[in-house]
Amino acid sequence: MRPIFLAAVLSLLPLAAQAETFVVRMLNGNETGGMAFEPDFLSLKPGDKVKFLASQRGHNAATIDGFLPQGALPFKGKINEEIEITFTEVGFYGIKCTPHYDMGMVMLVRVGDLTVSEMKIPDGLRPGAIKRIGQIVERSQ
Length: 141
Hints:
It contains two helices and eight strands, in the order αββββββββα. The chain has helices at residues 2-18, 127-140, and strands spanning 21-30, 33-38, 41-44, 49-53, 62-63, 83-86, 91-96, 106-111. Strand 1 and strand 2 form a beta hairpin. The model has no long low-confidence stretch (mean pLDDT 90). The chain is of the alpha/beta class and 141 residues long. It has a single domain (19-140), classed as Cupredoxins -  blue copper proteins (Immunoglobulin-like), CATH 2.60.40.420. It is globular and about 30 Å long.
């Protein structure tokens, strides 16, 4: 029984070794505008991680309500908190900085081989977020 268990565990190691960790900085501004995630668009494989760094004070990373794949768990970091999130569900995730959401501080994370045209933007997003998402989508194509 022990060799079978060991073989099963070892078979999972290549999957874990293939997962990547991406770093996203939360900034007061960059070339895309004020209050920004950098980068503001990521394409991941299931199991990849994103480390959100509060490179400048006053920011957090949180999922936008209703803007994540079915089965994905929402998250909300504290202000100035560095958090690392593993993205397992295929689909699009809308991420916001809670205090700067009205100003359009959002980003998109795509997990899997989806096209941007397959993204479903939920109703009720703030105008600043809608504008920034449009800019992100335009740059990503």
